[in-house]
Design goal:
By secondary structure, the protein is α/β, with parallel strands linked by helices. The protein has a domain of 224 residues: NAD(P)-binding Rossmann-like Domain (Rossmann fold, 3-Layer(aba) Sandwich). Helices cover 40% and strands 17% of the residues. Strands 3-4-2-1-5-6-7-12 form an 8-stranded mixed beta sheet, sandwiched between helices.
């Protein structure tokens, strides 16, 4: 099975690539290596996968012979079509996107360009090249102002609290349309607060650890009265790989699923776990709620568990320990 993986240099994309390769899949990875955050982190993720040369032309990994990479922007229609045409993938795992809730408040156009127009290009290529299954990243943020927890895929998601969330909701609607009209098999996975090694520097775990080690205050929003369904990145990657094999059998062939830990954790407890792993107390700057944020997230994961058998999750204590170990080694 040959899989085109977009966003391979990203946090989740890197871990999914490694999991696919460990399961003997052939992977064609693409990424535009943009500068939303430290480019060297993205380049080092690729080096971990054996990608030593970054060009627009496909290069083969020195570590995994079944991995090839090309620097391609999904907004570039012609280059995207060319990679589909030359590589002829069977499946597509689409993880490339402009992430970040707060960044969307200052840079809205980046989200429409990448997450809407870019996704349209992916859908068109999947349609034109008869892809067997398109698996794409959605987000828990689409639940928005919904106060009914745990979040279930049966609930309404028409009150997004940020433009980022709105673009992810649009992805689900666009995928449904392509499944309905063209019979394209599509699956959306709503990721819940992913953390772990090789994480994004703009996310709370990385920001907290950096500040605590430097003796600087950490920003704690809503005065700490928040809950998140923190999900270890390896559990996310395992779920993605398993779901590639579970094409929707409905009419139209479309499905959307939650993928999370299924156990909400208070922000206070999360910070305590980091403090314990670092053997250092945090200096907290308590702040009001930020625009675009939500108070709590909690995934109902019963559907994906039934489909894939993915029941066991990484314990928060263990996940934080692994994350801190990587952080100290890397930085």
């Amino acid at each position: 099975m040959k899989i085109l993986l977009t966003g391979i240099a990203g946090f989740i994309g890197f871990h999914v690539a490694r999991k696919l390769l460990e399961n003997n899949y052939e992977v064609i990875g693409i990424d535009n290596i943009n500068d939303y955050y430290d480019v060297s982190l993205k380049e080092n993720r690729l080096k971990e996968l054996g990608i030593e040369t970054i060009t627009e032309f496909t290069t083969t990994s020195t570590k995994y012979p079944s991995l090839r990479f090309a620097k391609i922007d999904i907004r570039n229609t012609e280059k995207l079509k060319l990679i589909f045409e030359t590589e002829k993938p069977d499946y597509v795992c689409h993880l490339a996107a402009q992430p970040g809730v707060r960044y969307s408040l200052q840079n809205p156009h980046a989200y429409i360009d990448n997450n809407v127009m870019g996704f349209l290009n992916i859908l068109e290529c999947c349609r034109q090249f008869s892809i067997k299954h398109l698996l794409f990243a959605s987000s828990s943020s689409i639940y928005g102002l919904n106060s009914q927890i745990p979040f279930s895929t049966n609930q309404m998601t028409d009150q997004p609290a940020s433009l980022y969330a709105a673009t992810k909701k649009s992805n689900e609607l666009m995928a449904y349309t392509y499944s309905h009209i063209y019979g394209l098999k599509t699956t959306g996975l709503r990721f819940f607060t992913v953390y772990g090694p090789w994480g994004r520097p703009d996310m709370a775990p990385m920001l907290f650890v950096k500040a605590i080690l430097e003796g600087k205050p950490i920003k704690v929003f809503n005065f700490g009265n928040m809950q998140r369904d923190f999900t270890y990145v390896d559990d996310i990657a395992e779920g993605v790989v398993r779901m590639l094999r579970h094409k929707p059998t409905t009419d139209p062939p479309y499905q959307v699923l939650n993928i999370g830990n299924g156990k909400p954790v208070s922000l206070e407890d999360f910070i305590i776990e980091i403090e314990n792993a670092l053997y250092k107390k945090a200096v907290k700057e308590l702040l009001p709620m930020q625009d675009g944020d939500v108070v709590a997230t909690w995934a109902d994961t019963s559907e994906i568990e039934q489909l894939t058998g993915l029941v066991e999750r990484t314990d928060l204590h263990e996940g934080i320990e692994e994350f801190i170990r990587w952080y100290k080694e890397y930085y």
